[in-house]
Predict the structure.
Amino acid sequence: MSDPLSKTLSEKLTLTPNFEDADAFFAALTQAHTGLTRAESDALNARLIFVLANHIGGSAALNTAIATAKAAHATA
Amino acid sequence: MTKIFESPLYAYHRSPDQDAAVPVRHPVLIIGAGPVGLTTAIDLAQLGVPVVVLDDNDRVVTGSRAICFAKRPLEILDRLGCGQQMVDHGIGWSRGKVFSRDRAIYDFNLTDTPGHKRPAFINLQQYTFERLLVEKIRAMQAEGAPIEIRGCNKVEAIGQHYDHVTIEVDTPEGSYTLEADWLIACDGARSPTRRMLGIAFDGEVFEDNFLIADVVMQANFPTERWFWFDPPFNPGQSALLHKQPENVWRIDLQLGPDIDKEREKRPENVIPRLKAMLGEHVEFKLEWVSIYSFQCCRMERFVHGRTIFAGDAAHQVSPFGARGANSGLQDADNLSWKLHLILTGKAPNSLMESYHTERAEAADENILNSTRATEFITPKSDMSRLLRDAVLDLAADQEFARPLVNSGRLSTPCTYRNSPLISADALAGPALTCPGSPCPDAPLSEGHLLDKLGNRFILLTIDAEAPDAFEECGVRAERLALSVRDDPSLTLKRQYLGDCPAGVYLIRPDQYIAARRDSYDDRHFRAALRRATGKE
């Protein structure tokens, strides 16, 4: 993250704590899956990704989001 | 209806070349009398370059191939004097519907740009398109134009030399040898020329098979492009319905990988599939059926010595987006004026390199769009399908998701961003007309802008002073002086000036913008013309 370009890219995506109410969001997301089959849950998650991605909109921020998610998995 | 496939359109005739003591040298030989070869031939002949087209057959293609012709190719055909015939024979369309499972999820409308002479698209069978081009060639021949089609002339061998090409041609009366300063291979996706020269054609092959059927029926489906994802009549797959002239309808049904092609092609298997789609009681007649799988491939280089590849021979895409014939016609448009300048000694041979640079950029854009559409239509993994279906489910209710739905991104011309022929922008004008872009049409008080450009270099001035013409290293640019006063709809101003009070554009013979500036400057535009002809 030292070169200026990747700094600019990541700046478009908020990666510092930003939830108004993190516990409530986690609960609401979990709750939304209650009673769904695995396939229905997968589909719900997929739709949610597109809803949130459209809200972000910018390609740089979306690419950073994908890279951030992939990186977290790799180090888990 | 089937007669056109059965009668020779350019029957074999013995050519005096077959009796020549030494092989006859032609400036240009074209292999393949398909849409791209015929268009290139017409373009070259109209520029005064003698041209001979060789085809291994003597008639139009069997069955149904290209059907959608986009605005830019129609504008090219206008330049060649046969756009109106195509529009008169074709049917215009701009609307479409997308279905997912059993419901219509949205409508789209590729609204025609106001003031442009030509519609977004027409549908026209490739065999009619080819017939009209051959009729154009016959009319040109009657006026003495140097253009010839030789049917049943199959090229069997090619020899490349540093300043010409030698070919061995097989005919019903034996073989003969020809030479050409330049050879243009327009012999299709399975190009025998490419194979004979041992040149690779690499890319991505898609495993899904598609049943393509043209049916004749009296049906009152509207003139729209209808696309289905996972319809009840073809579960788990896709379908496309498109209207052509003379009550012919194009149907594409995805069949998936690993099928028995011969079995699926039999009428007893095709007809039930079509009935499931069209309804039990719809009367129809099968005109043509085939099973295709698709690939997105291109040659690494489109120019090999004195052999130039154009159309599907050089690059191939899936049909979603109508980017095959449409891009091939733009290859012809790009190639002809360059070859004309080279053959008349007004440009160096190296100008041909820019044909490769520009059209390879276009091919990459087409392949990118076509590959993305194919992957959306035929997801390759469970997760791709899950994400694709999520988009479709959202798209029905939510407008925001509709741009993600990809049933084919329909053909638009490429803006050349990597071309060595294009000069830096010197006008704070609209992005639409930045150098490297094709000229957008505009209605004028009298006629349309593109009809005034023709097939030469034009210095377009809009409320700016300039000489009536200038010549640089043998190439002439003629002024076309316009004013926003000639532009009642303000289309010219909107597209070419934006907030600028005046503008000067150098426009190439293929109606691409080579340079622009806020006023005429002799040194600037002379340098731009040298650059546009490969001399800078």
